[in-house]
Amino acid sequence: MKPKLLILLLTFFLFSVGCSEKDNPVILPDEEGGTVTQKDPDYYAPASVSSIDKDAQITPSSASASEHQNGTDIDKTLDGDKGTNYHSRWGNQTEYPVDLIYDFEKDIDEIDYFVLYPRSDGNNNGAILQLTIYTKTQGESEFVKFNEYEFNNGMTPKIISFPEGFKNPESIKLSVTKGINDFVSLAEIEFYKKSAALEASLGVFSDKACTQLKPGVTKDDILAIENVFIKTMALAIFNNVYDEFRIGDFKSYPDPGIIAKTNKTSTYGIYDNVTGIYVKRGSEMVVFMDDFEGEISLSVVNHNEGFGGVDYVMQPGLNRFKVNTEGLAYLMYQDENEYQVRANFATGTINGYFDVAKHTNDDWKDLITNAEYSYFDVLGEFAHLSFTTDDLRQHTTDIIELIGLYDDIVDLEQDFLGLYKYNRANKTRMYFRTNTHQDMYMYATSYRTEYSKGTMPALCNPSTLKASPWGPAHEVGHVNQTRPGLRWLGMTEVSNNIYSLYVQTTWGNEARIDAEQLNPYNNRYEKAFTEILANNLPHGEHGDVFCKLVPFWQLQLYFSNVLGNEDFYKDVHERIRVSDNPSSHGAAQVEFAKICSDIAETDLTEFFIDWGFLKAVNADLDDYGQGTINVTQSMVDDAISYIKSKGYPEPEMKLQFLHEQSLNTFKNKGALSVGKAYVSNTKVTISGTNNAAVYQQERDGNIIYISPRATFTVANFESNDKIFAVGYDGERIELSVN
C-alpha cells in the first residue's frame, strides 16, 4: 500500500472512532502528503471544555460571626448548600455592624474575588444592602479597609473583586451595616483565585467576550492556538459559521420593583435579556463577557418546573460553570443606569428566539421549526412571551401579528393609566408565560402573567386572540392595578377589568358587561341597575364583580366617549399615585369619589351615592383573604361636603344610566318619546319608544327593576305596577301597559 493512501485511511479511521459527527475541526492530510492541515468548518460545535481551567475555589480554614441566630451560624455559608442560610439574631436584636470573618491557611498565596449568594427561599429578610470589606494579610495584626459597597438589590449574587489580587491572605472581614428588614442573612460565600492558563490562547481576540478577532489574525495564527476549545471557537468565528445567537449585545434594565413602587402597581417582567440558549442539565457552560458596570448573572429557567431560575454570577472575561438544572438562559442585568455589555455563549444548545425588531415571518418559520426546548421566547416592543413551542408551531403562522396584539394590550393599558402622559412607562416588558407545572387557568403575580397550556390554542392564534382578548387583558390589568387607591377590599377582580373592557372595545369587540347574557337578566348592566341602584345597596355589599365594575366603566363612557375627555382616567390614576395612601379600605372608596369629582371638575355626589360609594357600610368580605370594608356616615358626610364646597356643576346627564346601547342618545342628547309596554306574564316588551336610556318597573312608588333593553323579564308583575322610560337627562315618562 502506498504511504499516502495509508496515511489517508489511518487518519479516517482515527477520526471516525474518536469524534462525534458534529465535532470540529476536521483534520485531513493535504494533497502533497506529509503535512497535516485543517479543514474549514461549516458549522460550530464546541470542543470539550475540559481544556479550560476553572478558577480555583479556595476554602476558608475557619469562620466566625459577631452574632447569629441559633441553628443559622456562619458555617451555613460554607457548607456548599445554597438552601441553608446564615442569619443574624431574630426579633429586634440584630446589632450593626454584623461582622462575618473568614480565615485562610498560610499556604494560600492569592484571592482574586469572592461571590456572595443571597438566600433563595423566597424570603428577603437580611439580604445585604451595605457592607465594608476589610482585609488582613499573613503576619499583620490589624484589618485594613478595602472598600465600601451599597446594593440597590440585595437578592442577586454579588462579586467582590480584588483588581490586583489579595496576596498572602490571612482573613477577610465583611462588616455589614444594613440588611433588609434590619436583619443580616447570607446563603453561601465562595472565594476564588483566577486561572491564568488561557491568557495566551485568547490573544487572537480583540475583546474580552471573544467575539471579534484582532485585525490581521490569520488562519495560521488560529491553528497555532494550543487550547483546542479556543481554537475551535476562533476558527468558527474566522469562517463566519459561529451562530448569531451565541453572540449578543445586552442592555441593563432597571429593577421593575422600583417603578412599580412609584406607580403603585405590581411588577413587569425581568427576563427581557433573552439569549436563545438552551442549557441541558449537568452541562458545562462557558460564557465570555466583555467588561461591564454593575452586576450580571445568568439565570437558567426550567419553564417546565416554574418561573424561577438558578442564577450563576458573571464577571468580565471567562466564566465556566456546571449547570445543575436545565432550561432557557436569560442574562440578568438590573441597573438604573443605562449600560450595555456583549456576551458570548460558547457552549449550550441553540434554541433561538424571535425579536420583532430583528426578525420577519419568514425567519419565524425556521426559528420555531428548529427550536430544541419545549418553550420559546418571543420579544415585542412591550410584551415578552415564553410560550410552549409545540403550540406556537401549531397555532401561530403570523408571529408579527400575534406579538403585535400582545404589545397592543400592554400599550393600551399603560396609556389608559396615564403612564405615558406622566412619563411613568415601564422600562421592562410585560411577561406572558405558559404554565405547565400547576393546575391553574390564568393568573398574575410578581413579574409575570401565566396561562395554562389548555389556553394556548386560543392565545397563540392572532384571530382568536383579537376576537377575545379578555384573559390576557384581565391578567395584565391585575399587574397594572393602582393600589390601594383603586384596589381596595373587594376590588381585586373589579378595577383590573376597567382595562380589560378598554382593550376589548378598542379592538372593536362588544363590551362584555353589555353583550354577555345571564339569566334572568339581559346583561350585567341590567343586573347591576336592578340589584344595586334599585335596591339602594352599598357598592361593597354586592357580590358580582362585573356588576361592581359597571359604574367604573360608565365614568369612562361618559367622560371619554360622550364628553371627549380621553385623559379622565389618566389623570385619576395620577392623582392616586401622587396622593398619600388612604388609611383604610373604606377611606379609599370615599377618596375615589372625591378624586373623580376633582379631576372632572364635576359634582358627582349623586352618581356615587346611587352606586353605593357614598353610603355607610360595614361589611366583611373575602377578597383573596378576609377583611372588612367600613365606611361611616361621618366619612360620607365629609366627602359630600368636600365636593360641594368646590362649587362644581352637576352633570347634565344621568350617567348612572349610561351604557353602550345608549351612547348615541347621550352624545346627541336625543329627546325622549314613548310608545307602549306589553306585558305577558313576566316578560315586558317596549314598542314605539325612542331615546330611552333605561326602563324602570315601579311598584307603590318604588323602583324595583331597571333594564337597558326594550325587552326584559322581571321577577313578577302586578296589576298596579308601572313602566317608565328614562331619558339621558333623567326625564321619566310613564308608558301605557297592555
SSE blueprint and pairings:
Elements: H1 3-18, E1 26-29, E2 36-39, E3 56-58, E4 62-65, E5 86-87, E6 98-103, E7 110-117, E8 128-137, E9 144-150, E10 158-167, E11 169-179, E12 185-186, E13 188-193, H2 219-223, H3 228-238, E14 247-251, H4 256-263, E15 274-279, E16 284-289, E17 297-301, E18 310-313, E19 317-322, E20 327-332, E21 340-345, E22 349-350, E23 353-355, H5 361-370, E24 375-379, E25 383-388, H6 389-395, H7 399-416, E26 430-435, E27 442-445, E28 448-452, H8 456-459, H9 462-467, H10 470-480, H11 496-506, H12 512-515, H13 524-534, H14 545-562, H15 568-578, H16 585-600, H17 605-610, E29 617-622, E30 626-631, H18 633-645, H19 663-668, E31 676-680, E32 683-687, E33 694-699, E34 702-707, E35 711-713, E36 722-726, E37 732-737
Parallel strand pairs: 23-24, 25-26, 26-28, 31-37
Antiparallel strand pairs: 1-2, 3-13, 4-6, 5-12, 6-11, 7-10, 7-13, 8-9, 8-11, 14-21, 15-20, 15-22, 16-19, 16-21, 17-18, 17-20, 24-25, 27-28, 29-30, 31-32, 32-35, 33-34, 33-36, 36-37
Assembly category = single chain
Per DSSP E runs of 2 or more residues, the count of β-strands stands at 37
The average pLDDT score comes to 94
Question: Helical percent range?
Answer: 25-40%
The rough form would be described as elongated
**Low-confidence runs (pLDDT<50, min 5 residues)?**
1-36
What is the end-to-end distance? 115 Å
Count of alpha/pi helices:
19
Determine the structural class based on helices, strands and strand pairing: alpha+beta
CA radius of gyration is 33 Å
Spatial strand order of the main sheet: 34-33-36-37-31-32-35
Which percent range describes the beta-strand content?
A: 25-35%
Main β sheet profile: 7 strands, mixed
